Amino acid sequence: MAKKKTKVNRPKAIQPRGFRDYFGVEVTERAEMLSAITEVYHRYGFDALETSAVETVEALGSFLPDVDRPNAGVFAWQDEDEAWMALRYDMTAPLARVYAQYRNDLPTPYRRYTVGPVWRNEKPGPGRFRQFYQCDADTVGTASMAADAEICAMLADTLEAVGIDRGDYIVRLNSREVLNGVMEAAGVLNPDDPDAHAEERGIVMRAIDKLDRLGPGGVRALLGAGRKDESGDFTDGAGLSDAQADLVMGFMEARGADAAATIAALRGLVGGSASGARGVDGLEEIAALLDAQGYGPDRILVDPSVVRGLGYYTGPVYEAELTFEIEDEKGRKQQFGSVAGGGRYDDLVKRFTGQEVPATGVSIGVDRLLAALRAKGRIGGTSVGPVVVTVMDRDRMGDYQAMVAELRNAGIRAEVYLGNPKNFGNQLKYADARGCPVAVIEGSDEKARGVVQIKDLALGARLAADMETHEDWKAQPAQMEIARSDLVAQVQAMIARAEG
Amino acid sequence: MAKKKTKVNRPKAIQPRGFRDYFGVEVTERAEMLSAITEVYHRYGFDALETSAVETVEALGSFLPDVDRPNAGVFAWQDEDEAWMALRYDMTAPLARVYAQYRNDLPTPYRRYTVGPVWRNEKPGPGRFRQFYQCDADTVGTASMAADAEICAMLADTLEAVGIDRGDYIVRLNSREVLNGVMEAAGVLNPDDPDAHAEERGIVMRAIDKLDRLGPGGVRALLGAGRKDESGDFTDGAGLSDAQADLVMGFMEARGADAAATIAALRGLVGGSASGARGVDGLEEIAALLDAQGYGPDRILVDPSVVRGLGYYTGPVYEAELTFEIEDEKGRKQQFGSVAGGGRYDDLVKRFTGQEVPATGVSIGVDRLLAALRAKGRIGGTSVGPVVVTVMDRDRMGDYQAMVAELRNAGIRAEVYLGNPKNFGNQLKYADARGCPVAVIEGSDEKARGVVQIKDLALGARLAADMETHEDWKAQPAQMEIARSDLVAQVQAMIARAEG
């Protein structure tokens, strides 16, 4: 019979651009880390909140927190009733919506933590994905600096809880109000006419956000006449005089020998600015509270050179940085850098209710922190597979299933080989691909004698890799015959030996 | 100064229709349940997989697994490069994409579990949300009935692991191939001309899917001439003769005194159909494997009256039902019903690669299972708040923060009250709203004497509610004065007393 050929249009088996899949330990290690983080957040008195991935576009608003990416967008679509919906781009916008919606029922202050993916409609790049995890904690409804101090302390505790040693991280603390005070002292901010000099302040803010990348010289150029980059492109500067620029540079370089020295330097810089004085007082209060709780400058440091996010926040700003070195793709050593940031923002629910509600909070970049732990070798071990009961006689699946049931009931991860059992070599290849520690073998001969063979696959692999250990092999054979009735105990012992 | 009034268009603080928020224990209880489920899946040898929420529309395809809702849609939008993307509507479509994409690198069989939200663009209704959790386990790449048997066993173990007692659930097992055999015997399916009678078979399939709702009489009518419902609307029937309809009804009512009797009855019904014989052999094999592992008919039962999803699956079909009664909103008792379902489907990756890859798997409806545990009173306790250190003297925040640091370092959930401390009553109201077990009070007088007051808030609430316990109160005062240096030990003791 002649068959009519039809062209088949098959879908491509590929994820959308900028999205990725996570397998095995990548998933479980993240789950363990999130569990460790939320355990600390919970101990600090924060309650869990989980909102849906989807919000109305109206509730999300159109701004993104990260000034580096002002054009970053959201994934949005229209519902059947024409209303626009979108995937959340961070956890702060949904918190604002929730607090405005339930404010009469929630305790004040409202302390909540949340964890989950967020989505950014951005051009994907290497290592830059359009879905990633955030783990946030925020305190809403208090202007107390004790709330900011507490979040800095919690951030330090959290990093240690997930396996970053003390000395391998630093939480840096800065203040937007102090920067405002410095700009006031420099004459580019007038509290009585807040719109004046807005353009200059925008350039100043973007310039100091680039301190990491351009260094002090580059920032200084942008504060003044402008800067020509390596490609020859010219960026206009803020046009500050040398004296004005000195003040701003002085702010970034104000870190002294200890918190008291830094705070004194900042107090000098802000001159008579009320905002500046408030900011310096705040930093002083936070430093004193942290000192009372035993968090020294080896963990949390007042450091005005932390400038990221200053444009977004309204009060204290904090950032956790990992200080150990890793090698980049070209083998150059460099510090790992920022894994978490946060600060005070007082306009949280104003968009919804018109009321100013003070809030402060932190967001941990979960995927970056996981990458850091992998770079330190703290996680990222290969996955340990299940004990595999091989199939020697396909009519006796019941016997093999009974074995795995016994092993599982004893808490041992185990499975029967469920592929085609014809080729025994394929069964061992499967066990190898899964990283299985032990294979169990029971042919008809073993069955008749009431025994099974158990094979230490990890030891077998080591023996195969290193012929010198032949003596060890005799002492610790990779395969042994045991009584069927001893299956659970002997497999347990073999796994323990492999782990020890 | 006259201010120009501008109309402010404030966004509404509300989630999109059909979405909801989860607070406190709602979040943590789900996290604990998911952890218990995935622990069992892992012990059975399944590996974790986490795909992104977003897939290409092309990869998702346009079909949904649940035949009850053929018009159910997805949330979709166009990327900048015009490609259509959508939120996943289940976990099976992404698994198909992943298996097709990585099939040369994945072990065969590939056993994976996954957990996360899925989204359905449906009309929301009471208790019916557009985002909900699924927790799936699938074995891809094996036709062995041992894979199906294993998933039934795992489903039973999982329900017990999350707190459903044996006797409160049943896993029912059925077979699409047996139904095909019955339809062949009834003359509405011809293996040599598979397209013939497709319309009748569609009506038969939809009719038996309605057994729960219409009862045997209603299904019988739909198999024959048709059925007029209470509103007077008429639904066309499949037009089967009485003898044909008897066969189909016989299938649904084939459950006998034990698995052997049921299987014998089914063998009689399928006559000479090869598909039917294969299906009956499969059920027999699964029943024998489950028996070898000790899963009796009190946990897993061959029962052809389970008909949900028969249209979607291609081989064995299984469904977990909770058998205890709960009261519906009108106070009528009814069985809780289905919380998980699954089966064998052999066209998983065919859309992508053209190859048939056999697979079988289960999906647990996490939110329904949580509702069941709440109905049984197994979870859903009120949230226990942190120990609250009250603020008597706002200049001594450092002292109070030092107290919570001590408590937290001892593993006790604790916080300083961060609201306005002026009104002490508000501090206790806050502690009450949070469900705090203990309040710590240290005024200047206590500070001078080196003591603190600790207040058992749970006991205080019980005392306030019940005046007869005055004697108890004297024996167990709700408030006591302790040495400041005993803070951690005494708070620990008070919490232990409250829990005991």
From TrEMBL, chains A, B:
GO biological process: histidyl-tRNA aminoacylation
Subcellular location: Cytoplasm
ATP-binding listed as a keyword: yes
Catalytic activity: tRNA(His) + L-histidine + ATP = L-histidyl-tRNA(His) + AMP + diphosphate + H(+)
EC number: 6.1.1.21
Positions bound to L-histidine: 90-92, 120, 134, 138, 308, 312-313
Transmembrane domains' residue ranges: none
Record keywords, A-Z: Aminoacyl-tRNA synthetase, ATP-binding, Cytoplasm, Ligase, Nucleotide-binding, Protein biosynthesis
Family of this protein: Belongs to the class-II aminoacyl-tRNA synthetase family.
Protein name, as recorded: Histidine--tRNA ligase
Species of origin: Algicella marina
